[in-house]
Design a protein that fits this description.
With 236 residues, the chain is α+β, with helices and mostly antiparallel strands. The chain has 10 helices and 5 strands. The chain is globular.
C-alpha cells in the first residue's frame, strides 16, 4: 500500500486559496447543471487520492471508482441514469462502487502491512484478520456494509472537490444493472452512487435551509432535547 499522498495542489486552479472546512460545508450544493470546462488532471488525481484517505472498517477500503470522462461514455451512462442532463454535461462522472467480495482477497495485505507499519501487534495480525472476517461476513448485511463505507469515501470526494473550487452532484437515480452492463462492472459490485464533478452553470443553486439542531439532535437518549449553546437563553 502507499504512504500518505504528497505534492498535492495547495491552491484552487485559479490561484485562490483552498476553501476552509467551514466554507466547504456551507458552500457545497448539489449542482443541477454544469458549464463547459475540464477538471485538470492534477486536481482530479488529488480529489481521488484524498477520497482514498477516507476511513473504513478495519481499513479494508471496499470502495472502487470508475472515472468516466469521454463524452461518448458519459452519454452511455446518461442512458442508464434516467437521461439526467448533468451526466452528459459534467466533464467528470464517477461511478462509485462497493465491492462485496474483492476486499477479502486483500485482507492479508491490509492486516499484514498494518502490523508492519505499527498499527497492529505483529505477532497477532492473523488473529485480527480472522476476527474481522468473521464479524463482517457473519454479522453484517454485505450490501449495507459496503454502501456504508463507500458513501464515506463519496463524501470525501464531494468535500475535497469543493475545497478545490469544483461543484458536485451526487446521484441515486440510475439503473444499477444497466450501469454494470454498460461499464463491465463485476456482479459482486454494489453501485452506490454516481458523482458528477465540474463547474456549476449559472445561476447558483440557492440555499434551501436545514433543520435546527433541536429537531435532529438528542442528548444521551432519543427524544431528550439537545440544548444548543447560545440558544433559548434568557436575556435581561
Amino acid at each position: 500500500m502507499q504512504d500518505k499522498p504528497n505534492g498535492l495542489p495547495t491552491t484552487q486552479p485559479n490561484g485562490e486559496k483552498l476553501k476552509s472546512i467551514i466554507e466547504v460545508a456551507l458552500d457545497r450544493r448539489a449542482t443541477m447543471n454544469f458549464a463547459r470546462g475540464p477538471v485538470p488532471d492534477e486536481y482530479l488525481d488529488a480529489i481521488l487520492l484524498l477520497a482514498g484517505q477516507a476511513p473504513s472498517g478495519y481499513n479494508l477500503q471496499p470502495w472502487r471508482f470508475v472515472v468516466v470522462r469521454e463524452e461518448q461514455n458519459r452519454r452511455r451512462l446518461q442512458k442508464v441514469a434516467f437521461k439526467q442532463p448533468k451526466v452528459a454535461e459534467a466533464p467528470v462522472v464517477i461511478i462509485c462502487l462497493g465491492m462485496k467480495e474483492e476486499w477479502k482477497a486483500r485482507a492479508d495485505e491490509i492486516f499484514g502491512e498494518g502490523a508492519e507499519r505499527g498499527g497492529l501487534q505483529t505477532e497477532s495480525w492473523e488473529q485480527a484478520r480472522d476476527g474481522a472476517l468473521n464479524f463482517i461476513t457473519n454479522f453484517q448485511s454485505m450490501p449495507v456494509w459496503v454502501t456504508r463505507h463507500a458513501m464515506i469515501a463519496v463524501t470525501y470526494l464531494m468535500l475535497v472537490a469543493e475545497a478545490y473550487g469544483f461543484d458536485t452532484a451526487p446521484m441515486e437515480g440510475f439503473d444499477p444493472a444497466g450501469v454494470k452492463a454498460e461499464f463491465d462492472i463485476p456482479d459482486e459490485a454494489e453501485v452506490v452512487a454516481l458523482l458528477a464533478i465540474g463547474r456549476a452553470a449559472e445561476p447558483d443553486k440557492k440555499y434551501t435551509g436545514r433543520f435546527s439542531l433541536d429537531r435532529v439532535v438528542y442528548a444521551e437518549r432519543y427524544g431528550e432535547p439537545w440544548h444548543q449553546v447560545g440558544q433559548n437563553q434568557a436575556t435581561g
